[in-house]
Write a structure and sequence with these properties.
382 residues; 45% helix; rod-shaped; alpha+beta; 3-stranded antiparallel sheet
């Protein structure tokens, strides 16, 4: 049985086709195309001169349409933009800010990215509306800012990335990446985690911020260039670097202890800088005194040696006289300060050495006179 003879199908009543539609549908019918063309022709005839379609009228209409179509190719590029002209979807040239022209659509089209503007991207923090303060406030985003350092400590890093489109890479920016801001954010977070993961927590918290920022910027630029993103990273700024809120008090105590340690080391270094030169000066003085004493002793030894040689020369000329003189001078030098004198009677003595109290005959030694005063001599003689 053909479909057109099935009048009582399960979908609806009446003769229908297999998909529920038939030639005798009761719904609204679509407009007739010939009727629309006829109405448009009648309206155009009423507008043209003479009330009918002529060759001159059609030509005039075509020229006007062609002029409007040609003028539609003018466009203006703003100060922060660059014009990327596409011919049938292919990038053919880039134009600078100002009034420019491209072939009308659909031959050429233009895209106007903000290529001369420096964009700011915050990571680890976000601005939210605060009705109580009637403005916007900063809110931390821990899932972006919490990172693990090389010595297995957790640090909270909030930073900002300044980036812009490369003037010679606008085409790459438009066609190589789909979400530029999301790509820059993902690359920045990944680069910061890698750099922080290679360092210890103490340098990151104190003096290594500049080095960390430079390393993150270099790594971001290298990664974006490998993507062909056409993006230039201008600067990376670390806004806040703190330990997690749960242990920040303990880290502050550690920081205070380190500051005290550095202060004590500086004080000790200052004391050493003051004491060591003084000790070196005294050591140099002692060395100079010892050097002087050595020179003096050598000079005296040489003088005594020369004197001995002179005496020896005289001794060789007259041994007896010289020997007697040396003996007398030696005895005078030895007995000159003695308080008791012993007299030897010679061969006629009775074997007993007589002791003579001759103290009165010897000059009494007086205490040394004060400096600047002459010493008085005793009147007694021997």
């Amino acid at each position: 049985m053909p479909w057109k003879n099935q009048g009582g199908g399960p979908w609806s009543s009446g003769p229908k086709g297999p998909w529920g539609s038939g030639p005798q549908s009761s719904g609204p019918r679509p407009p007739d195309l010939e009727d629309l063309l006829r109405r448009g022709q009648d309206r155009l005839q009423s507008l043209l001169p003479g009330g009918f379609v002529s060759g001159a009228g059609i030509a005039l209409v075509l020229l006007a349409a062609l002029a409007i179509w040609g003028l539609s190719g003018f466009f203006r590029v703003q100060s922060e933009e660059l014009g990327v002209v596409l011919r049938f979807g292919k990038h053919v040239r880039t134009v600078q800010p100002g009034l420019n022209y491209h072939l009308p659509y659909p031959i050429e089209t233009v895209l106007l990215p903000k290529a001369l503007r420096v964009s700011t991207l915050s990571i680890g923090m976000s601005l939210i509306d605060d009705p109580s303060r009637r403005g916007r406030t900063m809110r931390d985003v821990p899932e972006e800012s919490l990172m693990l350092t090389g010595d297995e400590n957790i640090v909270d890093v909030d930073f900002t990335v300044l980036w812009r489109i490369k003037p010679d890479g606008v085409g790459n920016f438009l066609f190589n990446i789909q979400n530029p801001e999301g790509t820059v954010k993902a690359v920045a977070e990944s680069a910061m985690r890698e750099v922080v993961g290679r360092a210890n927590i103490q340098p990151v918290l104190t003096g290594a911020r500049t080095t960390t920022e430079a390393n993150v910027q270099e790594l971001m630029q290298k990664t974006l260039d490998s993507y062909g993103a056409g993006i230039s990273v201008q600067q990376v700024q670390m806004q806040k670097v703190d330990p997690p809120a749960q242990v920040i008090d303990a880290f502050r105590d550690v920081q205070a202890a380190r500051a005290d340690l550095e202060r004590l080391q500086n004080e000790a270094q200052t004391y050493a800088n003051r004491v060591v030169p003084d000790a070196r000066g005294r050591a140099s003085q002692i060395l100079q005194v010892a050097e002087g004493y050595r020179e003096q002793a050598i000079a005296e030894a040489r003088g005594q040696s020369a004197r001995f040689l002179k005496v020896y020369d005289e001794y060789k000329k007259a041994p007896d006289v010289t020997r007697q003189r040396i003996y007398l001078e030696t005895m005078e030098r030895i007995l000159g300060g003695a308080e008791k004198l012993v007299y030897d009677g010679g061969a006629g003595a009775q074997g007993v050495v007589p002791y003579l109290p001759l103290n009165e005959l010897t000059p009494r030694r007086q205490p040394p006179a004060p400096s600047g005063q002459p010493q008085q001599q005793s009147g007694s003689t021997r």
